[in-house]
Structures are given as C-alpha cells and as structure tokens.
Amino acid sequence: MDKDKEFAVAYLRYSSHAQDHGNSIEAQLTCINNYASAHNIKIEKYYTDVAKSGRYTYNRHQYLQMKADFESGELKSKTIISRALDRYHRHTSNQLLDLDWIEDNGIRLIAINDSIDTVSPGYNKFAAAVVAAMAEETSNNISKNTRAALLECAKQGRHLGGIPLIGYKVNDVGLYEIDELTAPIIRDIFNLYASGMGYSFIKKHLKSRGYKTTNGNDFSDTAIHSILTNKKFKGTYTYDRTASKDSDGRRNSHKEKSEYVVIPDGMPAIIEPELFDKVQEKMAQNARKQTHRTGKNYYALNGFLQCPECGKAFSGNVNNSNGHKYLQYKKSCDCDLKSVRADHLNKFVFHAVKNCIFSPQNKQKIMDAVNQKLSLQKYIQCGETNAIQNKIIGLEKANSNLMKYLEKGKATDTILAEIDKNEKIIKQLKMQLDSKSNEISEIDDKAYECLVKKFNNYMCTVKSPESAALKAALIDNIQIGKENITVDFKPGVTIDENTKDYFNAG
Ligand SMILES: [Zn+2]
Fold first, then answer.
1. pLDDT digits (tens, 9 = 90+) for 291-336
2. From ligand 1's centre to the CA of 331, what distance in Å?
C-alpha cells in the first residue's frame, strides 16, 4: 500500500531546558505520527536531536544529517514534518535561510502546531518567519529568566542546583547546612595542610579513613587544591557564572573568572576564617619554595640546623661523591665547616629528645595526657559515628523499599541504578565506620613501652603534624660547629644527667 502513500521525514528536537516542558520526545512523536496517519503519509526516517539548544545549528548533528540526506538524493521524501516551527530554529536569520533552502530544494515543510504547510495556498514565507521570531523571543526570555532567577537566588545565598559542595547539604528552602558526614573531610584537609602536611600525606590520610569525593573517587591533588582555595568553606557565599567545580576539582577553565555575587557570612562556615587565611598564606609560601624543594627525601632536622659562626642554615641534600650515596646536611655559607650525615645526626638528636621526654618522672603525665586526648577524640567521633550509622540505616531502608518494587516486577533501569548507587555509598560509609572503630582509645603500660621504642625511628622518618609539633616544642636550634654539635632545647625542657653525659660523649 506504500505506493499510494506520500513519504516524509520527521524531525524532532528535545532540549533539556526545564522550561521546555510539553516538548518531550514522546509528545512530539505522537503528534507527528497522528498527523502522518491521518494524512496517509509514511515516515521514511526520523531525525532526533537531544539536549541541544535550538538557538544555533552547528551542534545539531541529526538536523545537518537530514539536510545532507536531502541534498544527496538519498531520500524518497520531499517533505519534512515537525510538531512546531520552533523545533527547527529559534533564530530568525537561520530560520529565513532555511526557508530559502527549503524553497530552493523543492521541499515541503509541515509544522503541525503552527499550521504551516509550505505547499498550502495560504503559505507565506514571511508569516513563517514571524512565527520563528516569536520562538526566538521565547528562547531569549527563557535564558534571561534563568539568569535573573539564578542571580536572585544567589543574592539570597541559596544553592543553585546540582550536587551540593562537599561538606554541605541543602535544606528544604534551598539554603546550605553543614553536613556532619562530610564536613570532617574538609576540616582534616585544612588542619593537615596548615600543620605543614603536603598533598601526598593528606591523600593517604583521607584514603585510610575511607573518605571519597562526592563522585565516589579518591581525592586528587586538584581536588584538594580546589577545596583549600574555596572561600565557601569559611562561610563566604560566592556565585560564579562559570560552571561550578565538582568535588573532584574539575571545571572547564582554570582562569579566575569574575564572581558576580560575594556574600561574607552568606553560608555556614566549616573552617574558621583564621585557619582559612593561614592556609592561603602557607600555599603562597609553598608556591615560592617549590623551586628549591628537597624532593622525596625526608630530612627530619631541616629548619633547625645552623652555622655557629654566621647563623645561616644547613639543609638536607644527597651526597653522591666517592661512590657512596647518602643523605647529609650541608652548609649554605662560606664558613669552614663540613657536612654531616643526616642519619647520624638524626639518631643522635632524637635519642636525646627521647630521653628528655620519656623520663621516669614524666611517664604518668604523658600517659594521662595521651589518654585524655584519646577520650576527647572518642567523644567527637561518637557524633560522627552516629551520623554515619543513621545514614546507613536510611540508605538500607531506601533500598529495601526499592527492592519491593523489584519483587512486584516493576524493575526499571533507574531503580536498579539507584539500588546500585546506594549499595556503593553504604559500602563506603561502612569503610569509614571501620577505620573509626580501629582507632585505639586508651594506652596501657605495654602500649607506652612500645611507643617509646618506636619513638626514635618515628621522629627520623615520619613527616606528620605531630612530629613537626613536637620538634617545634622541644628544639630551639642545633649548631653544627667544626668540632662540636650543640643542641639548644626550648626553655622548660629538663635534661637529666644521663642525657648530658650522652651528649658530651657523643
Ligand atoms: Zn657560616
């Protein structure tokens, strides 16, 4: 029967614009198919462009394909059917160009809802262009309204859609609230960086805690950097026209764009402004230092060593001479002084430090202080643990509800994907719980002895906020003389006779 039918192609376009309601692909398809069957037309081919703006043609592959197919003579059809003219174009000049193209190629255009049919006696190219102009006006309004609405929301400090920034959740009225589940991640990152830890230490720490980005990835350098520089964490609400960064730190451009809205205290702060500023300062310092970094080797006493003559620093580097390779501390002045082996000096200094700290009369004081800190940590963690526990319960409940749908045979890809997503989050949260419950909450005599034994090696090899703080609290400076090495302790550090002997013998 096809012989009696006229052939046509159908063109459909769906943009994901929220305001583009009523233009679903299904609605367009039904409309076109109903029209075709009522008019005894057979649709030869469907061309569908999805989620592209109607304002420009260059990104509409199917639209261009359709034109190409007409021009190459591949189609039996000489007719295009669409639900409305605005499916073709929302830009008048393009519209007129294409109306010319339609005319030149002898093609018939039917726009069902606009009652346009280019072969009908009443057809008028300019009337069609007017319809197009109206469509364009609508499009302009949509984008204008969207921009205006976003700006208005931004001025009220509201969340503007998408996944909320890590550390925050969005409440019923669209305002930010601190998410106690992810806020600890932000606090850890800022505190660790402020205490002198580098990105690799921070990454390792986050991983050991089971912390992930909003997208479920491990934290990258870029992600950490973008968190450390985001003013929102100190409570400054900002609205930037450029696409917002996700928690993996990706965004289209690295250039700093002008911010349209900046509201100090426009949202709850996770980080104290003082800490935030300290971190910015530190980042600037580190950027300057970058050029003469010591690389991967860790020099535990860097920053404490100096020349007794002129006061200039000794700092770590690798000695490669005479076939032996070892780490050493080297002078930076012209005084007549030799380098010292890093491992020897480290051991020597930290042995003395150990004797000062872990003296018998200090033992009880240290254990009390450690236990006090551990119990405080435990108390803080109780809150975090509860929050995680509750989130797991919520997700498990959600999944069991979704499973009920599955049992009723109503499985859809969306439901399956949702269950899968929830399972992944549950797994992550359980890892976080595990790492928290593994932390010790009290030390006894045995743990104390173990701590003392490990102390020297720990101080020589581990770069951590704790080791840095300890050094800063105890050591004032170390003079590397020609004959002697002198360690000056901070005032208040008591040194017993044994240690004094050790020093003078060493
Ligand atoms: Zn010197």
1. 444 457 889 999 999 999 999 999 998 888 777 788 999 999 999 9
2. 7
How far apart are the C-alpha atoms of 481 and 488, rounded to whole Å? 13
pTM of the complete model: 0.43
Dist. CA 203 → ligand 1 center (Å): 38
16 CA distance to ligand 1 middle (Å): 70
Give the integer Cα–Cα distance in Å for 475 and 483: 21
Alpha carbons 359 and 193: distance in angstroms, whole number: 32
Q: Quote the ligand 1 centre to 335 CA distance (angstroms).
A: 4
CA 226 / ligand 1 centre spacing (Å) = 41
From the options 1.10.357.10, 3.70.10.10, 3.40.50.300, 3.90.1750.20, give the CATH code of 168-292. 3.90.1750.20
Domain at 2-146: CATH code: 3.40.50.1390
Residues 201-238 pLDDT 10s: 899 999 988 898 888 889 999 899 999 999 999 999 88
User: HSE (CB half, 13 Å, CA atoms) of 443?
Assistant: 20
